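Q&A FORM
Asked by: J.P.
Topic: structure of Transposase

PROVIDED:
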Amino acid sequence: MGQTKSRFRQFTDEQWERIEPLLPSNEGRQGHPFRDNRKVVEGIIYRYRAGIPWRDLPREEFGAWQTVWKRHARYARDGTWDRILHVILADADAGGKIDWNVSVDATICRAHQHGTNTTRPEQDTGGSVESQEPALPGL
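REPLIED BY: S.T.
REPLY: Here is the structure written out as tokens.
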């Protein structure tokens, strides 16, 4: 696949050509039409990849952060992301690119009695002083 040219570009042209038709169109939609879908979707991916708050998205690269956030929320709400994932997984599976082997581990790791957020007044938890608290004189 082709390389991306910028650190802000998340998709190659080939990848974008595969994803773009899966996004909702502007047909019949009232209000402002979606402008550059690629710029917005790449802004969403960049935000998650970089681990930054929405407000810190580079405006010159992705436009207003509010627009990027609203589009992400809309696509999450209407199931767009789920549909894209299902189509891409189905294509990858049909092409033999997914290994469906799964490993299941039945190991149990018990929490310490003080590691829970429940109280057990009927059960002695080991004394009048918690281990992380200093003992007070006279106790």
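FOLLOW-UP: The helical segments are 13-19, 37-50, 59-62, 65-78, 80-94.
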